[in-house]
Backbone:
């Protein structure tokens, strides 16, 4: 790549005479007069840029097998699901094709579609509702290019002020039908004579754009969309092939243009209206509006580059910093003056790079004919591939992280350019200028452009864009083989050839051979350089179209969706319905929406129909394909417009169903229920066809309210799942895969009638095993007929009883008629189809046990508990029998044979060899159950004991009586409740007290002692006899002591047990002197007893008396130790007693000191005199009661008042006052009356002896002693409070 200034030009440019290429001129109908040729000659590019060639697929066309190959290709194509779906938009653009007009240029951006026609008309259409915003006649010949500023335009956004202003403007616009509107828009003369009645375009940010168009008539027209008077028309006297508005045209009024003159011209400051007097049409309108400005200013034209042939494409970058254009020598990139700093002003309009076109004869001939397709890549709007997996080899190094950050920074400043020209694709990276590095160190550059990738295709490129970051989208035009008269063979997916184009001819000019191929839409992987997808598009009259007639436009995923949401919000804000809003925004549209409109009077029926459909679509809901998320691809030809969008889940579902991939279809609906909610279901071919009817009903279906739709949304999904599931099952059955079909039935069948249908289908084919495991095991609503389950059970009862048992356990009884199945089982037993001794696969009685167990279970379910219990007992199923007896309280049902019931878990053949512990464990559950029933009064203990006694089952009887005595079965209770229940249970044993003594003495001696100590109803003689029989001396001792035979009991201890310790303990327990005397007499000739008495008698008897009674000369082993022990024990006892006495004395002394100090202490009265006759003493109130016993409001006692009469004391009080330590003070008389009510008191006691005898000390002491005797007990008020 080299850098050149626009003044020096390209040093490598070849001298060439540039003439107007007649073969590329167009007539009024847009038909070219020569065919394009595909590149790929002998020439080669000698540059070192990366390059990859994608060649055509080899096609063998032998006549004998050509038909078979075509069928195979079609089948192969059908196996692969298409990536895109198509919708023909031609019927929505009826106004564009009215009066035989055809489009020659096309642009889609934001929410606008702009089309230029061969008649010079410009149509501005709002997406996604296809509402015509503006139609104006700008040129007298074919429009060659369209450019808008800003690009891309801002997306529609709803703002309250703009929306209100828009609604106000719309509602105030009058409906003024004009005769001028009925004239054809193609009539330039009519347009010049009388301007059209234009309706106002809302001045919103998305509408505030400028539209520039160029034409072969040499004119460039720049028109404001919102202001019809803001227009300029400039004539360059040579056909213009390309025009590009500055991204900031609104402020700088600058644009670039080029054409057959070979000059790249920068126009700035062009005035409104006409710049020359050589134009008509729009210039005449401008003259009418701004006639005074004609000649006032001409603007400035600057030639930036020239001399390299025809310029066919010009494109500003998205940032405005760069501009790219194509001429016959190659691709040129220039730095513009936008966003330049003052220091870099010299870099303005300096060329920073170029790429030579490929060499070859084809390029020498066709470089001026092929139209280059240029796109600046907007990385933010391109969908990314699936996210790459995070590396698992550890954390990146700091150097790698730094390189990554540098790359991200470089990507932010770098801009990418995508060029498709002829059969070659360039991907170029354009970098901003700066200080050079390396060999260019210190030098400043305006920027540079590098070729990142270069590809060669086997076609002519009619449009190019990025589908994703790694997929290239190409609109390909393949030149036909002129030697073959047969129509071209389609590659890729199956398509249907256009029918309406057969025999089509140009409306004028020379008749030519019509053999051009339809265009192809391809996706190319930029990594592998492989073509991953291709569709052949069926375009109207494709046979007569060339590569330059096709255009490709791409809208990012969010553009049209934003327009749709904004329009819906605007309707809600304005309060209009859809029709009312459309009428307000475009009042004239309703006048010409009918097929009989005077506007379409010259059109044929098809045009009228299309116009009507387009009108209804434009004023109805947005186009469904445009409303959905995802990339929108527009393929435009002179007579057709096709929309390609990414296939959504609904399309994927339709494709799966069409190809009978029912399993994948079912899983898709299961994972994404909203797939069924898609309003569009397409069963037709993947590419549009001229014969396809794309009517209003397909896109604008009348639907119910949103709330109703949401309420039925998932139910619709479930219905679709069931429908697909049935197709899936049928497919498997037809293939003979009954096992898989049964599995799928359990997964997809959901209604009872369908279950009935499929079960009978399997049963009819004797495929019970394949379906039985998948029949629902829970009751459905409505329920599945029970006959299905009964048939299955009956089948397996005959062929496999273990399988029958398994099904009976799995299926709840409510699924079938229990009585019917019970009858079948009873018949098996009645007619001895099964027997206990039958050999079933080497197992004795297996089928009999299965039938009996099943019958018991069904009896239990049917409420026939007694019959079920009999079955369990026959089976010796103790667990089930016990459970049934406990749950249903059926113990009385086995009361006739208690021994058998207790021995239910006891094997009869092992009874003699079982230990007591084993028998106890085996019978514990039955015993506990009988004890529980006895406590509830259901099974009387007499019945149980009598039956056990009759069969001499003493051990069973012992278990039963022990259970009653312990109160087994009451463990769930606690506290007093359990104690009461245990007592009630023990009272049941009183009837069998003597039997209990016998059994307890035989089997549980510890329990015998507890029973003897607790019970009082057993016979003493029988109990004593049992104890004598078993030599139970402690029990005999207890019995004798209980009856008062203490000496006999003592002698039993001494003579039979020879246990001196027990004898001493027994004597201590009874504390009987006579018993001690007997013990001493008995022990005096027994040294062991004497030593025992010395060691253990302690202080129970006088040790001196014990020692004195020891015979002299009797040798007693351990006598010294015994004496030491008794002396030590008495010493300890004396020490303890002495210590207690000392503690007691100290406590008494302390209490006495406290008492004396209190008695000596005087009562201190803190007297506070408020008045001369009032004294306050701190005290507490004492409540009183009224005569009726109810509390009476007591006078509040205050200090300085009598605690009885509540009268205040005075300084000259003559009556004796008595005060207590608590603070209460009384008049002496009142105190005595309180302490001794009803008594009369001596006047001397009241007045005081001291006053009578001259205040003598002795008289005062005597008086105080007399008062103390009468006032014992303390303060009566406090004493009363303590009692309360």
Residues:
């Amino acid at each position: 790549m080299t850098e050149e200034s626009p003044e020096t030009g390209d040093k490598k440019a070849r001298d060439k005479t540039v003439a107007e290429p007649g073969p590329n001129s167009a007539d009024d109908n847009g038909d070219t007069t020569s065919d394009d040729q595909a590149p790929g000659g002998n020439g080669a590019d000698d540059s070192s840029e990366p390059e990859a060639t994608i060649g055509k697929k080899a096609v063998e066309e032998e006549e004998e097998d050509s038909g078979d190959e075509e069928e195979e290709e079609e089948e192969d194509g059908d196996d692969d699901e298409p990536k895109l779906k198509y919708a023909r938009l031609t019927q929505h653009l009826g106004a564009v094709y009215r009066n035989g007009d055809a489009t020659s240029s096309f642009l889609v951006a934001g929410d606008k579609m702009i089309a230029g026609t061969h008649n010079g008309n410009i149509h501005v259409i709002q997406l996604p509702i296809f509402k015509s915003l503006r139609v104006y006649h700008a040129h007298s010949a074919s429009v060659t290019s369209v450019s808008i500023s800003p690009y891309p335009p801002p997306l529609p956004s709803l703002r309250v002020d703009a929306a209100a202003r828009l609604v106000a403007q719309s509602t105030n616009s009058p409906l003024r039908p004009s005769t001028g509107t009925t004239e054809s828009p193609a009539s330039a003369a009519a347009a010049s004579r009388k301007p059209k009645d234009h309706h106002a375009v809302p001045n919103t940010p998305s509408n505030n754009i400028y539209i520039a168009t160029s034409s072969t008539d040499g004119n460039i027209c720049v028109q404001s969309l919102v202001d019809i008077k803001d227009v300029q028309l400039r004539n360059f006297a040579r056909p213009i092939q390309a025009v590009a508005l500055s991204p900031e045209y609104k402020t700088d009024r600058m644009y670039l243009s080029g054409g057959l003159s070979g000059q790249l011209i920068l126009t700035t400051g062009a005035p409104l209206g006409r710049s020359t007097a050589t134009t008509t049409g729009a210039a005449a309108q401008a003259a009418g509006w701004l006639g005074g400005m004609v000649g006032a200013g001409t603007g400035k034209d600057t030639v930036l580059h020239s001399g390299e042939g025809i310029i066919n494409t010009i494109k500003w970058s998205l940032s405005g910093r760069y501009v790219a254009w194509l001429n016959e020598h190659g691709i040129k990139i220039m730095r513009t003056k936008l966003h330049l700093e003052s220091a870099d002003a010299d870099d303005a309009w300096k060329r920073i790079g170029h790429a030579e076109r490929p060499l070859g004869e084809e390029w020498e001939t066709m470089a001026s004919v092929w139209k280059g397709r240029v796109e600046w890549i907007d990385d933010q709007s391109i969908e990314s591939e699936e996210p790459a997996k995070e590396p698992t080899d550890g954390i990146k190094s700091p150097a790698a992280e730094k390189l990554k950050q540098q790359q991200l920074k470089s990507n932010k400043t770098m801009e990418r350019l995508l060029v498709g020209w002829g059969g070659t694709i360039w991907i170029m990276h354009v970098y901003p200028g700066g200080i050079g590095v390396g060999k260019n160190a210190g030098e400043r550059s305006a920027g540079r452009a590098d070729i990142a990738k270069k590809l060669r295709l086997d076609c002519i490129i009619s449009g190019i864009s990025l589908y994703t970051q790694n997929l290239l989208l190409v609109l390909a035009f393949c030149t036909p083989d002129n030697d073959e008269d047969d129509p071209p063979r389609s590659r890729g997916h199956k398509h249907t050839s256009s029918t309406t184009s057969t025999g089509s001819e140009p409306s004028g000019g020379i008749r030519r051979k019509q053999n051009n191929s339809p265009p192809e839409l391809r996706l190319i992987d930029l990594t592998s350089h492989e073509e991953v997808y291709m569709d052949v598009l069926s375009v109207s009259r494709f046979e007569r179209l060339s590569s330059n007639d096709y255009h490709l436009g791409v809208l990012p995923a969010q553009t049209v969706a934003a327009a749709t949401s904004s329009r819906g919000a605007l309707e809600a804000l304005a309060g209009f319905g859809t029709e009312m809003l459309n009428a307000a925004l475009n009042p004239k549209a309703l006048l010409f929406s009918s097929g009989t409109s005077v506007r379409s009077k010259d059109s044929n029926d098809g045009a009228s129909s299309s116009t009507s459909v387009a009108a209804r679509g434009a004023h109805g809901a947005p186009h469904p394909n445009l409303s959905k998320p995802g990339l929108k691809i527009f393929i435009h030809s002179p007579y057709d417009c096709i929309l390609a969008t990414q296939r959504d889940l609904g399309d994927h579902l339709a494709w799966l169903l069409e190809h009978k991939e029912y399993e994948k279809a079912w899983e898709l609906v299961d994972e994404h229920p909203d797939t069924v909610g898609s309003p569009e279901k397409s069963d037709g071919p993947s590419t549009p066809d001229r014969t396809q009817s794309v009517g209003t009903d397909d896109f604008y279906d009348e639907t119910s309210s949103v709330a109703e739709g949401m309420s039925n949304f998932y139910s619709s999904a479930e219905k679709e799942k069931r429908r697909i599931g049935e197709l899936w099952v049928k497919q498997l059955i037809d293939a003979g895969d009954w096992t898989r079909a049964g599995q799928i039935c359990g997964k997809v069948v959901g209604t009872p009638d369908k279950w009935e249908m499929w079960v009978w289908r399997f049963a009819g084919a004797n495929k019970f095993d394949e379906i039985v495991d998948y029949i629902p095991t829970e009751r459905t609503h409505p329920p599945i007929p029970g006959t299905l389950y009964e048939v299955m059970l009956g089948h397996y009862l005959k062929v496999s009883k273990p399988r029958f048992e398994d099904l009976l356990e799995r299926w709840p009884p409510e699924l079938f008629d229990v009585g019917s199945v019970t009858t079948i089982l009873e018949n098996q037993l009645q007619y001895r189809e099964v027997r206990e001794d039958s050999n079933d696969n080497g197992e004795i009685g297996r089928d009999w046990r299965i039938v009996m167990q099943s019958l018991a279970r069904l009896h239990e379910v049917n409420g026939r508990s007694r019959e079920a219990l009999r079955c369990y007992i026959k089976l010796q199923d103790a667990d089930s029998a016990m459970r049934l007896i406990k749950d249903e309280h059926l113990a009385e049902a086995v009361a006739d044979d208690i021994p058998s019931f207790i021995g239910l878990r006891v094997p009869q053949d092992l009874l003699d060899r079982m230990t007591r512990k084993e028998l106890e464990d085996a019978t514990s559950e039955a015993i506990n159950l009988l004890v529980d029933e006895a406590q509830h009064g259901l099974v009387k203990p007499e019945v149980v004991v009598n039956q056990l006694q009759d069969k001499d089952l003493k051990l069973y009887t012992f278990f039963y009586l022990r259970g009653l005595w312990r109160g087994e079965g009451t463990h769930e209770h606690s506290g007093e409740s359990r104690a009461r229940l245990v007592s009630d249970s023990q009272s049941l044993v009183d009837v069998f007290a003597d039997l209990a003594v016998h059994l307890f003495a035989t089997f549980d001696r510890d329990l015998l002692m507890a029973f003897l100590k607790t019970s009082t109803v057993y016979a003493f003689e029988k109990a004593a006899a049992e104890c004598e029989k078993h030599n139970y001396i402690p029990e005999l001792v207890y019995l004798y002591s209980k009856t008062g035979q203490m000496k006999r009991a003592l002698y039993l201890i001494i003579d039979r047990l020879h246990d001196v310790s027990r004898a001493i303990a027994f004597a201590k327990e009874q504390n009987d002197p006579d018993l001690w005397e007997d013990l001493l007499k008995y022990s005096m000739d027994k040294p062991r007893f004497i030593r025992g008495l010395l060691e253990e008698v302690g202080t129970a008897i006088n040790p001196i008396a014990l020692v004195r009674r020891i015979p002299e000369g009797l040798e007693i082993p351990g006598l010294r130790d015994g004496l030491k022990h008794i002396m030590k024990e008495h010493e300890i006892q004396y020490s303890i007693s002495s210590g207690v006495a000392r503690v007691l004395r100290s406590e008494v002394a302390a209490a006495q000191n406290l008492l004396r100090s209190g008695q000596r202490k005087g009562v201190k009265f803190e007297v506070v005199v408020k008045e001369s006759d009032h004294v306050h003493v701190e005290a507490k109130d004492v409540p009183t009661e009224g005569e009726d016993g109810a509390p009476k409001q007591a006078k509040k006692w205050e200090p300085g008042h009598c605690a009885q009469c509540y009268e205040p004391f005075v300084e000259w009080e003559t009556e004796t006052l008595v005060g207590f330590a608590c603070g209460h003070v009384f008049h002496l008389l009142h105190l005595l009356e309180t302490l001794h009510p009803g008594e009369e008191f001596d006047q001397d006691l009241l007045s005081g002896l001291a006053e009578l005898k001259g205040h003598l000390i002795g008289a005062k002491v005597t008086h105080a002693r007399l008062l103390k005797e009468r006032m014992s007990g303390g303060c009566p008020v406090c004493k009363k409070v303590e009692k309360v």
Q: What stands out?
A: The first strand starts at residue 51 and ends at 53. The chain has a mean pLDDT of 74. The CA atoms of residues 608 and 1152 lie 132 Å apart. The two ends are 117 Å apart (CA to CA).
